[in-house]
Amino acid sequence: RQAMVTRLAGQEAAGSHSTDDCQSQEKGDEDPLMQQAGDLAVARLKVVKAAWVLAGGPISQQWFPQSGSKRDLLSRLYTGLDEFIAKGVLCPPGLREAVLAEEFDFEACMARFGLRGTEEDDEDPLLKQHVQLAKNRL
To answer: Which pTM was predicted?
Structure first.
């Protein structure tokens, strides 16, 4: 685990966030993430949601739900990544690569992108966090 955190920290790009960091890449006919456990798809989606929330993305996105088939979860994951560009939300550098990495580690990603503390054991903690952040901006 420590090696993963170190490797992720070493890969982190310097500079400001940009929407280009979440730019779509071509996916093959068979997504390799389909071969992994479904709980990893949920964890990957949680990281993208947390990054979205902290970047001030619009509330209540159709890709936020964390239930359904693995294919549905991965579709929402890719949609979420693409939405950074579509909605002009600043994407943390390296987010796409980190959440799509074959050796994905939830805790390492949350730490790398400063997203710790956005996940709680509530029904939809990220939406609650986003609402609180939006209220603080008013």
So the answer is: 0.69
* Burial category of 19 from C-beta neighbours within 10 Å (exposed 0-12, middle 13-18, buried 19 and up): middle
Are 85 and 19 within 8 A, CB to CB? yes
- Angle CA(99)–CA(102)–CA(106) in degrees, nearest 5? 45
State the sign of the Cα–Cα–Cα–Cα dihedral 34, 39, 40, 42.
Answer: positive
- The pLDDT, as a whole number, for residue 124 is 57
Angle at 40 between CA 83 and CA 36, to 5 degrees: 110
- Side-chain-facing half-sphere of 10: CA atoms under 13 Å: 6
Residues 73-82 pLDDT 10s: 999 999 999 9
Gyration radius from the chain CA atoms:
14
- Per DSSP, the residues of 51-114 read HHHHTTPPSS-TT----S-HHHHHHHHHHHHHHHHHTTPPPPTTHHHHHH-TT--HHHHHHHTT
Burial letters 114-131, b for 16+ CB under 10 A, else e: ebeebbeeeeebbbebbe
